[in-house]
Amino acid sequence: MMMRLFHSLGVYRMNDERDIDNKPTILVVDDTPASVGMIQAALEQENYQVLIATSGEKALERINFIEPDLILLDIMMPGIDGYETCLQLKSNEKTRDIPIIFLSALSDTFDKVKAFSIGAVDYLTKPVEPEELLIRVRNHIRLNQLEQELILANRELDDRVNQKSSALIHANAMLSEKEELLRIVYNLSPIGIGLIDLDGRINDLNLALGQFFGFSGPSDYASYSFFLDSNFSNQIISRIKNSETLEIEGLYDIDRIKRKNLYRTKKGGSVYYQMKIIPCYNSKTDQSSGYILFLQDITEWKQKERIMRDKANE
């Protein structure tokens, strides 16, 4: 039934009995029987599936029923000529990527510039040489296949890039949220936390550590170094420099340090503290890059402990 429909429309197949599953399909649009016969014979030798449309109108009417791999399009035909047929094919999203080779008789006035500018990929002069026809058809079909494969590969690559970009944006958003949460925990922690360099100088500290030492801003601790603080013994300093993790308790004499003007303090007298210092390492060089310091004022706890101990001894 479909074949009768094609024939009635002036679009018909050659060698209908052959298996066409894996054969490129060529649509020949030409109203000259001799030219069509010669082209058909040459293409059949190479096992191409050949479709014929006897006019530009017939080709345009039924292009949706066929999916040719290449179109051989005569320039001079009654009704719609080859140029207009090409323009309409290129304006159709379904057919605009099909390569078109123009056919032009020696006696025809053929505008090559116009042909290429409206989308043709090549042209042949009639009568066509079979060998030249086959070479050009084969080359342009392969080129078009490669172009479509490249377009598909680029689309798949774009999809993967977009997916990864979306995942990266989501991951960065989650990372930003976690960083903000960590910053909040860092700043509001009741335990003093600080980042110190290899010379014992403070690079950053949270509110609790600043309150312990009485620092109100970077200018207060710009000249301060843990390694020069006499509250920390030489033994502790050497252990720090040996990249050991320290966990110590001690008595911090604020008044004595205050008198040396190393920094300001809100408190006087002495306070008990618990301190932990953890070495940090550069992930690339595996070398120590500084320390994280955790410090807590345990004076109140020590006082309660002493009261309980005194009561127990009464």
TrEMBL record:
SUPFAM superfamilies according to UniProt: CheY-like, PYP-like sensor domain (PAS domain)
PANTHER family in alphabetical order: REGULATOR OF RPOS, TWO-COMPONENT RESPONSE REGULATOR ORR33
GO molecular function, one term: transcription cis-regulatory region binding
Keyword Amino-acid biosynthesis: no
Modified residues (4-aspartylphosphate): D74
GO-annotated cellular components: cytosol; protein-DNA complex
Residue span(s) of domain Response regulatory: 25-141
Organism of this sequence: Methanospirillum lacunae
Protein name per UniProt: Response regulatory domain-containing protein
InterPro entries found in the cross-reference section: CheY-like_superfamily, PAS, PAS-like_dom_sf, Sig_transdc_resp-reg_receiver, WalR-like
